[in-house]
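[Meeting: bench + compute handoff]

Bench side (C.D.) handed over the final construct sequence. Compute side (W.E.) agreed to return the predicted structure before the next meeting so the bench team could plan truncations. Sequence as handed over:
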Amino acid sequence: MFSGIVEDAIKVVGLRKEGTNLHITMSCPFSDELRIDQSIAHNGVCLTVVALPGDGTYTVTAIQETLDRSNLGLLKEGDLVNVERSMLMNGRLDGHIVQGHVDTTAVCESVETEDGSWRYRFRYEVSPEMIRKGYMTVEKGSVTVNGVSLTVCDSEKDSFSVAIIPYTHDHTNFSRIEKGTKVNLEFDIIGKYLARLAELS
């Protein structure tokens, strides 16, 4: 369980394919605090630490299902990945409830500067089945973009905007998102449950 409050944007230093799996190694300032089997969200995708070489890096493995559903298969060495360790149950929930289970990807349509902040617009493929599952946004609701908990603006059937403050821009990989960039989306879990209840009632 996560909150969508990114701890750091860390650099990919190694990529290795093994069958259909992708092993991703990253340089991390808090690698000495990690342990094998620990869950960490990477661009919003919950992955397990599988190696800690002790050189300031760690490795996780993404299976084919994860690569198909997220943007992790597009990573290159030098790319920045937003990371967040799992939420402490005795802490404040500063973002919203994030599972680390990416629902789909979206493409950035535009980036506009707004007097000290930025507005990003994202578009994703939508279908009746996705809507029945609650894979949608609502005005002023929550959405996770590359692991960042954000408030939805200008919600439409297959697109939405988010406003990014300077701190978030500078401390996450939003600083590298531009028109055409593919991002990971996780829709609000409460909305998914409500959609499921409505479908079954």
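W.E. noted at the follow-up: The chain is about 15% helix and 40% strand. C.D. will use this when planning the next construct.
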